[in-house]
């Protein structure tokens, strides 16, 4: 029953497709994360934007989730 509810909710409320980061963008995000381990996804996005790299907060969150990278709380 729960599986049916989840499928129906996806049809009614489709999830937003998040643009995956390129390998180059992912490297820049990870470098910034190493430099600033307490930075939020928003701050990381702004930091790489200064280098003309586009990385949305959602794409950065997806990168961290996919690779099981843990952010330590402030």
Plain-language structure description:
The protein has 74 residues and is mostly helical. The chain has one domain (20-74). It contains 4 helices and no strands. The protein has helices at residues 2-12, 23-35, 41-49, 57-66. Helix 2 packs across helix 3 and helix 3 crosses helix 4. The chain starts with a helix and ends in an 8-residue tail after the last helix. The model has no long low-confidence stretch (mean pLDDT 84).
Give the biggest beta sheet: none
Strand percent estimate: under 5%
Mean pLDDT: 84
Derived from helix and strand composition plus strand pairing, the structural class reads: mainly alpha
Give the beta-strand count: 0
What is the number of helical segments per DSSP (H or I, 4+ residues)?
A: 4
Radius of gyration: 15 Å
Our count of domains comes out at 1
Helix content: 55-70%
The low-confidence parts are none
**Coarse morphology:** globular
**How far from one another are the termini?**
39 Å
**N to C succession of SSEs:** HHHH
């Amino acid at each position: 029953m729960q599986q049916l509810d989840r499928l129906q909710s996806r049809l009614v409320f489709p999830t937003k497709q998040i643009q995956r980061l390129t390998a180059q963008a992912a490297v820049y995000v990870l470098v910034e994360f190493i430099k600033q381990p307490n930075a939020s996804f928003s701050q990381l996005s702004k930091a790489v934007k200064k280098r003309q790299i586009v990385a949305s907060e959602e794409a950065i969150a997806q990168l961290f989730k996919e690779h099981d990278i843990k952010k330590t709380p402030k």
